[in-house]
UniProtKB/TrEMBL annotation:
Protein name per Swiss-Prot or TrEMBL: Response regulator transcription factor
Transcription regulation recorded as keyword: yes
Domain called Response regulatory: residue spans: 1-116
Database matches in Pfam families: Trans_reg_C (PF00486)
DNA-binding region: 124-223
Alphabetized UniProt keyword annotations: DNA-binding, Transcription, Transcription regulation
OmpR/PhoB-type domain span: 124-223
InterPro entries given in the database record: CheY-like_superfamily, OmpR/PhoB-type_DNA-bd, Sig_transdc_resp-reg_C-effctor, Sig_transdc_resp-reg_receiver, WalR-like, WH-like_DNA-bd_sf
Annotated organism of origin: Chelativorans salis
Length: 223
């Protein structure tokens, strides 16, 4: 899930739509309500955030510093002016990257993946699990070098499991990461349906089920 912060509702709605087309959930805030949320949000809610996108704010240092106090997720600022002074100031506030608008959401996702790789000291934009190569930039996974086309929700779940391959993740954590913590129109149990379909496809290609599940403990990829 990507959190978008901008004082213009039209802008946040636009990014919600654009990221949604890429299968990425978002949560949108105005600057004031965002500061209150990030300071009081539960740890599990913050862990569901893959990145923060900061747009127009009167005092951008406030949301940037609030994020840094509670999360290590990438922070990307969107700049509408070509100002070196403003760019340097944003970096001082703690953002990881400053991008000049207009910019395609796929470029934003690529920048988020690049920052995450550096943070995790990884040199690749994929995770290899047995014969599977699972990308973090929206591409379909590969099995023995052959692409495995997946619906975007199933692909995002597989990506999330790959990023967290060293630990178990619960159904709630997967739901929050894929649908967003504020989506009340979708039932959490939809995750079980997506995972069931994903496991069937992977089992057909691999000859075994690479997703281990344990009641009350959650899911993890078998590495």
């Amino acid at each position: 899930m990507i959190v978008v912060v901008d004082e213009r509702e039209l802008v946040t709605e636009g990014y919600t739509s654009l990221f949604g087309r890429e299968g990425v959930a978002t949560a949108s805030f105005g600057p004031g309500e965002f500061s209150e949320w990030v300071e009081t949000a539960a740890e599990d809610d913050l862990k569901a955030v893959s990145a923060f996108l900061l747009g127009q704010c009167d005092t951008p240092e406030k949301p940037a510093r609030s994020i840094r106090d509670r999360s290590n997720a990438p922070v990307i600022a969107l700049s509408e002016q070509n100002s070196l002074e403003d760019t340097l100031r944003l970096f001082e506030y703690g953002v990881d990257d400053v991008v000049r608008k207009p910019v395609h959401v796929r470029e934003i996702l690529a920048r988020i993946a690049a920052i995450s790789r550096r943070t995790q000291q990884q040199e690749t934009n994929f995770t290899e699990v047995g014969p599977m190569r699972i990308y973090a930039d929206g591409r379909d996974p590969e099995i023995d070098g052959e692409p495995l086309p997946l619906p975007r929700r199933e692909r995002r779940i597989l990506e999330y499991l790959a990023v967290n391959a060293s630990r178990r993740v619960t159904k709630t954590q997967i739901f929050n990461a894929i649908y967003g913590i504020f989506d009340e129109e979708v039932e959490e149990n939809v995750v079980e349906s997506h995972i069931s379909k994903l496991r069937k496809k992977l089992r057909t290609k691999l000859g075994f089920d690479p997703i281990e599940s344990k009641r009350y403990l959650g899911y993890r990829l078998i590495t």
